[in-house]
Design goal:
- This protein has 372 residues and is mostly beta strands.
- The protein has a domain of 83 residues.
- The protein is built from no helices and 32 strands.
- The chain has a four-stranded antiparallel beta sheet, with no helix packed on it. The chain has a four-stranded antiparallel beta sheet with strand order 2-3-4-5, with no helix packed on it. Strands 6-7-8-9 form a four-stranded antiparallel beta sheet, with no helix packed on it.
- The radius of gyration is 20 Å and the shape is globular.
Length: 372
Amino acid sequence: MSVVPPTSGAAAGAMYELPLLAGHTSSSAQAVNDAGDVVGLSLDANENGYLVRWGADGTLTPLQAVEGGTGGHAVKIVDDGTVAGFTDAPDGVRHAARWSAAGVLTRLEEPPGYTRGEAQDINNSRVAVGQLSTESRTLPVRWGPDGRATALRLPPRALGGAATAINERGEIAGYVSVPGEKTRAVRWDTRGRVHDLGSLGGSDSEPSAINDRGTVIGRATDTNGIWKAVRAPRGGTFEALPSQEPGARTVSANNADVVVANVKDRSLRWSGTGTGTGTGTGAGTGPGVTELQPLRGTARTFVRGINDRGTSVGTSDPFAVTWDAQGTPTALPVPAGFDRADPVAINATGVVAGNVGSSRTWPVRWRAVVWR
C-alpha cells in the first residue's frame, strides 16, 4: 500500500533521478558540493557498488577503484569536483583515496607499517584528514594536496585516534583514546598543536564537524552516560547545547554557528548567538532553540544537515523535507511509484541530494536523486 505525502507545506523544487551505469539496477547518493555535483554508488543486480560522480549537468563519471576492487565510500566532494573517501581492494582491505573530477584515483599515502586507511573529510585546498591503521592501533593523519601523509600529534597519554573533520583554514577536529575513556575530542590548530576539547564528565566525546569559524560540534556523554549535543568555539571546550532531552544522535552546523541535531525522535535547531525566542512547541525547547516540526500526519523527524542560508534538510517519517529558520517543514516531491525518501545533504544554493525508493519491493531498490 503506497503512502501519500502530507500536503502541509508547499512542495519544494523538482526532483531528478540520476543515471545508472550500464546494466545496474539501483544507486545511492552520498554527498553534494556547492556546484551541484553529486557522488555516490551505482549498484548492479547483485548489490555490488561502484563509486561514481554525477555532474550538475547530469553526466556520469565512474571513479577508479583500487586494483580492480569494488565498493568504497565517498565522504565529501569539494567545489572543483575532487572527491575524498576510501575504497576496498579485492582482498577487502580499505584504503584512503582521492579522485579527480575526471574520476582518476590517487591512493593517499600509507607509510611503511600502515596496512589500511580512511579519509574522513577534505577541504577545497585538497587537504584530507582521516586515520591510518597498523596491526595494533589507529592514528590520526593529514594528507597534503600531494597525497603525502603527516601523522597528527597526540596529547600525553593518548594511545591513538582519528581526524574526522577539517575546515577551509586547515584546522582539524578529531578524537583520541586515553586510558579510562573511550574517546576524547581534540582540535589541531594550523601549526599542528593539539588542544583538548574537554568532556561532559563521561567516557566519550566525539566531534562531527569544524566550521570555518573554528567552532567544533559533536556529541559527548555526561556523568550518567547520556549523550548530549555539544559545541566548542575556537579556543574553548565542549559545552552541552541548552534545553535538550537525553539521547542526542547526529549533530551538524553551518558557518554561522547554527547547529541542528537529533534528540530521540525529534530534531532541534540552536541559533548561532544563543539567543532567541524558541519557536518550537515541544518539551525541551527554550531561548535560542527551535524544534523542527513534522509534516502534518507524521510524528518523527530526523535532520541531516544545514546550509549557510539556514535551511535544514531531513525526513519527517518516510518523507523528505526542508525546514526554514522557524522550523516550518516543506515537503520535497517524489514521483509516482515511490513512497520513501532519504535526503543526505543540502548545498549552499539549496540543492538537495538523496535517495528515493518504494516499499513495494524488498529489499528496497533505492535511486539517487537531486532536488533543485
